[in-house]
Amino acid sequence: MKFYLKDFWIFISIAETKSLSKTASQMGMSVSSISKRLTRLESYLQMTLFERTTRSIKLSPMGEIAYEKSLNITEQFQKFINDLKSAKFTLKISTPRRVIESILIDWCYEYCKNKQDIDISVLDSKGSMESLDIDELFITNRKLGYPLAIHRQLHPVKRVICCSAEENAVTEISDPEDLKKHSTIYFIADDDEHDIELNKAGKIYKLPDEGLHLSSIEESLKMVLEKGCVLVGIPIIHIRELIEMGKVKIILSEWEMKDLTYYLAWKNRPYFKKEFADFLKYIEKKWQERCLSY
User: Fold this and answer.
1) Which pLDDT score is estimated for 11?
2) What confidence tens digit (pLDDT) does each residue in 184-221 have?
3) At CA 287, angle to CA 151 and CA 107, rounded to 5?
4) Are 125 and 156 in contact (CB under 8 A)?
5) pLDDT of residue 160
6) What spatial distance separates the first Cα and last Cα of the chain, rounded to whole Å?
7) Which of 18, 17, 10, 16 is nearest to 57 (CA)?
8) Phi, psi (degrees; rounded to nearest 5) at 117
9) Does pTM surpass 0.85?
10) DSSP string, the chain
11) What residue ranges of the chain have pLDDT lower than 50?
């Protein structure tokens, strides 16, 4: 036979009101349902809790003991619920991209300043995610193989061609053909990407599948700043600060390439806390704002 905590609440109410009908009214239940619940509890405990007459109902000797114990049980359970509700809500967020991780740290710091009852852990970068914890978000440019993961596509990320902003660092680039005259490197979003195409009002230019292809954003930008290379395909969200600092500039801006797709992933479950839903919306909003900055 199963144990039902609500049966003890009903038992306590009957003991205090000395009435099945009053308890039914308090609980929003019928008298017959209250009676069945009481009978079930007595069967579970294997004891008679009340002495009943046609005019009254009062606790039996064992019922007196059960009443005191039940008060303790329900008070402890209520304390447990209150402690859970008052506890800080902890969120986790991670990504395999360290440059995105640095952006997330800024966003999470801003979020925590305005939400005193929430803790956020920005986890170390991971190459893959075999599983997801409850209340954990994961930002990735490819869908996870984890069967319980929900994927929500974030705002598409524009990719651009950039070079050092130093005077005379790169000159005479007005057409994709001019890239052949310079040390040009290519950022690839994943190992499956090889060919990069540029599009200008329907005109297609296919970049040669040769030269240095890098998947590291940090190393790609290091080549631009230290070696004077032209970088093709860098997601614009990763060079915003460098543009504002006057260290890099976008070239051939009229030529477009395929946007980069990122996903926000989390573990599927039937119920989501409001704090989790609010944080998810916040990350989506901050991501979109950054993508639309240029």
Assistant:
1) 92
2) 999 887 666 667 889 999 899 988 777 888 888 889 99
3) 110
4) no
5) 93
6) 65
7) 18
8) -100, 15
9) no
10) ----HHHHHHHHHHHHH--HHHHHHHHT--HHHHHHHHHHHHHHHTS--EEE-SS-EEE-HHHHHHHHHHHHHHHHHHHHHHHHHHSPEEEEEE-S-HHHHHHHHHHHHHHHHH-TTEEEEEPPP-S--S---TTEEEEESS----TTEEEEEPPPBPEEEEEE-STTSS---SSGGGGGGS-EEEE-SSTT----EEEETTEEEEPPS-SEEE--HHHHHHHHHHH--EEEEEEGGGTHHHHHTTSEEEESTTSB-PPBP-EEEEE--S---HHHHHHHHHHHHHHHHHHTT-
11) none
pLDDT in tens, 239-281: 888 999 999 999 999 999 889 888 998 888 777 778 888 899 9
pLDDT score of 52 = 87
Residue in this structure with the two tokens 């989790």, named with its chain if needed: 276
The pair phi, psi for residue 268, each rounded to 5°, is -75, 140
Of 171, 163, 170, the C-alpha closest to 232 is: 163
User: How many residues appear in the chain?
Assistant: 294
- pLDDT score at 194: 67
| C-alpha of 281 from chain center | 9
- Distance (Å) of CA 43 to CA 1, 32, 34, 49: 9, 16, 14, 10
Structure confidence at residue 193 (pLDDT) = 67
Task: Tell me the two tokens of residue 143.
Answer: 């869908």
Q: Which residue has the tokens 């609010």?
A: 278
Structure-token pair, residue 184:
């040009």
